[in-house]
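As agreed, record copied across for absentees:
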Amino acid sequence: MSKAKLENEVDKTMTNETDAVKEKRLSIVAKMKQKREQKKIEEFKNKTELEKVEERREEVLSKGRKFKYPMQYAKYRVVTVTIILSVMAVVLASGAGYFMLYKWQSTNPILYRLTQLLPVSVANVNGADVRYSDYLLIYHSTITPIEKQQGKLDNAKDNDFMEQHYKRLALDEAENYAWALKLAKENDLTVTDKEVDEMILEHRKIGGVERSEEGFKKILEDNFGLTMKEYRRMIYLSLVKEKVSQAIDTNAVQLAAQVESLIKSGKDLKTISEELGDKVLYEETGGLVDKMNVDGGRSLKAMSLNAGEISDKFVSSSGDGYYFVKLVAKTDSTVNYTSIKISFTEFDKQMKEIRDSGKIKELIKIDRQES
């Protein structure tokens, strides 16, 4: 046999042996695999239903874990983007609100409602913040009846002059109220809801006719553009200022004591006014007036007196001073009287000093206009 033929036979033999080995190895692997599968089947058959459920649950969870972290990452991104967009929206809204309130000085009703919710200031009076909402409240309650009666002026320049004039008045009054609130806190002075209710009831009776609550609300809305809540705020502020003005004005208290002493000595109100000069204000009705006359409460007080009798001192219903009233004559519905008024001046004096010393910082620019 040739060499090449011999080598060929050897190769064939080796190939056949290798194939046989492979087949044998594969047969062993298959048998082992089959045994494992058979073992699993036997184990599964022997398991309880609860164990089967738990095993299936774990299988499902293990597959779900593949997607857990990608989903968490996606959720994190959604939250992050939402927060960023929310912050951007707040910043943009705040910027727009700032320009409309402090640069353009808008009195838009929507912005006004916004200032009632947010504690934004329009000025500071010697450490006391002036609420923007109070300034706009006073301005709207003043300009609304004027515009309802005469409408906007045809001349744009005149209309702007009018608006600036009432804005200036409203800001001054809001600053007065802010200072009064500060002094009230320092002097432990308070205004209760009951006091506000009583004042509103008096206003409902102005003119001698008591209006219903709903009717009064309609008057406020139609004529002044005010809700009852806003009107209560205005009454509250005015009562605070009245109490403060009375509490801090020691000069008025001393002057009232002097008038009381002169009355006890038998002197008439007119004589007392001549003696005290411009420290007091003397007035006469000059005849009979309606007992519901709007005069700081003097007509009603005079109706409770006898002819020639002089009342004790009392605070005017507007809260700007003390009154002494002498009844001259009266009927069932009319009254004739003389009176002396001692005005409260200390509060206005303090405000003037604060203004002159530059202790009021205004965040909007409204010039004082001369007519």
